[in-house]
Amino acid sequence: MAGSDDATIQDLGHESRKFPPSAEFVATTLVADSSLHDEGRRDYEGFWARHAGELLSWSKPWHTICEWKLPFVKWFIGGELNVSYNCLDRHVLAGHGHKVAFYWEGEPGDTRVVTYQELLDETQKFANALRSLGVQKGDRINIYLPMIPEAAVAMLACARIGAAHSVVFGGFSAQALADRINDASAKVLITADGGWRRGEIFPLKPQADAAVEYTPTIEHVVVVRRGGNEVAMQAGRDHWYHELLAQAAPTCPAEPMDAEQLLFLLYTSGTTGKPKGIMHTTGGYLTHVATTFKYAFDHQPDRDVFWCTADVGWVTGHSYIVYGPLANGATQVMYEGVPNYPANDRVWSLIDKYKVTIFYTAPTAIRTYMKWGAQEPAKHDLSSLRLLGSVGEPINPEAWIWYQETIGHGRCPIIDTWWQTETGGMMISPLPGVTITKPGSATHPLPGIAAEVVDEAGNTITRGGGYLTLTQPWPGMLRGIWGDPERYRETYWSRFPGRYFAGDGAKLDEDGYLWLLGRVDDVMNVSGHRISTTEVESALVSHPSVAEAAVVGANDATTGQAIIAYVTLRGGLSVDEKVLRDHVAKEIGAIAKPKTIYFTPDLPKTRSGKIMRRLLRDVAEGRNLGDTTTLADASVVTELQRRATDSPSED
Ligand code: 7RM
User: Fold this and answer.
1) Over the chain, what is the mean pLDDT?
2) Whose CA is closest to 417, among 254, 274, 289, 573?
3) Closest approach atom of ligand 1 to CA 416
4) Which of 197, 408, 422, 617 could make a disulfide contact with 412, Cβ separation 3.0–4.6 Å?
5) Architecture in CATH for domain 527-646
6) 421 within ligand 1 shell (Cβ under 6 A)
7) pLDDT digits over 2-35, tens only?
8) Atom of ligand 1 at shortest distance to CA of 390?
9) Span 383-407, average pLDDT
10) Residue 515's pLDDT is what?
11) Pocket test for ligand 1, best of 271, 367, 504, 605 (most atoms within 8 A of CB)
12) Cα(141) to centroid of ligand 1, in Å?
């Protein structure tokens, strides 16, 4: 039996399919050779400095590229720039004012086309409006909005005048909003009457009102009219966005900001305790997201229409809807609602309608589309697509292959992009014109990024499973946790001295490819074997009847932990529990065979779509559930708890 002290994480999965980019893709890609990777390896500071200079406009040059006093970093010291100028003004000044920034589509089907000129005009007015409410450089502003263009305007207006924004996802409760406002001591809250979701209005202003009861620092509330639902407006405190804009002066010159000026806070809940306000600053962050947007998506401004399905409330929306794409002058689709309104083919109909060329979504969404069936995408012409991306969780090889064949028709490279709120932008991903991809592997660090897998003792390993660490600073790196430098050091820099570690397991295969293995808190220990949830889940999902699976280790008297699986089947299919257990044994070995499999129509997920294994462990071990408010649908676990007390195989 392997001792659990020196055991890292076992390497069970095997996936040998390889996909080089097609000759057709390579013919027009931005990068088709190893030059970027080589440059980044030779001199990572020089690599990022070159892109900072080439992709952004600076009003004052930096004197020092990078100052690294572990664990605190500064990039482009002495340099000045304005993020909103870089995302708007310079494109308009270059003659691209008529270019579409957003093809916006509301859930009910209403549409707006917003050009760069219009986005700049509205941002300037709203920046003036914020100033008229007393907002000054250095203040914090909360944003609590649906997916509407005003969300981007609000973020860019803050950036224009040097106020830091803190966006809270519109699906979060009044309590969650109040906690985040109070932690940041925000002065203004920007919200809407309501937005559309699943064919109905979800009210936001009443939630905002309930939050503001407990937030003494909020002086003003700005309300965008979107839902048209009746709302109460408190005189002196609450203001309609459109009324403020009507009174605002049309020009607001972009103020130069220090490269290390705080651009935003974004709260992540982490596994325990109070949410952390992750801090991102100006010059390094924009360099990171602009560079990765351009090269990982192979973005070419005169041919591409980009669609990222994330919400602006998550880091993916900040980096790859607002800052990365707009800094590159991209044309995007922005969609307000759910993917199954009015029917299960809404996403594919939007790709067809707007001729989307680059599509970026999450594995949880892909597995849901698989469950809904291939007939849905088949109703639409998806031939405009040339590149597909994935983010948020490990993508199982089976889902990867479905994405590649059924959505990409074998034509589109897939980039599986690993990164975190804390990293600001992508870290590990294929370069689509260069990397030979393997289904389920995020492949290699991007140019200018360095990662290593280490064992329990922190020694670098070159083969097998362990802990993913980052070994040199990068420009989009978090600058800290708002108000808590000690927690910053403790959370990210203490487990492996000198290395950044934020909780993910990973393995290196015989070709040096990285495979993400999920959060290390989720790793199971069965008879001393440390088994990753990701590999068992991928084995389950590789069975033709399985759409989605979550596995957890539950206390077991004989084996320490036993593997318990929760499985969702593809539409209309059924399968015997034993067949699935044997399938896992055949795919990755008898040690990984689930002891029990529960069939369930849904899995508990966070509101950003990540499977909540901690809750499933609580269910499996018969514990009372703690806080379930961060769940997308809390009824799922109640149902699972009920079933856990029944006989599992009767489902
Ligand atoms: C962008 C985002 C971060 C955590 C991260 C991982 C997981 C994200 C991938 C992934 C495997 C991926 N930010 N994760 N992308 N795991 N492959 N391509 O999701 O802060 O919300 O989450 O998400 O565990 O640590 S996040």
Assistant:
1) 94
2) 289
3) 18
4) 408
5) 2-Layer Sandwich (3.30)
6) yes
7) 334 446 888 888 888 999 999 999 999 999 999 9
8) 18
9) 97
10) 97
11) 504
12) 26
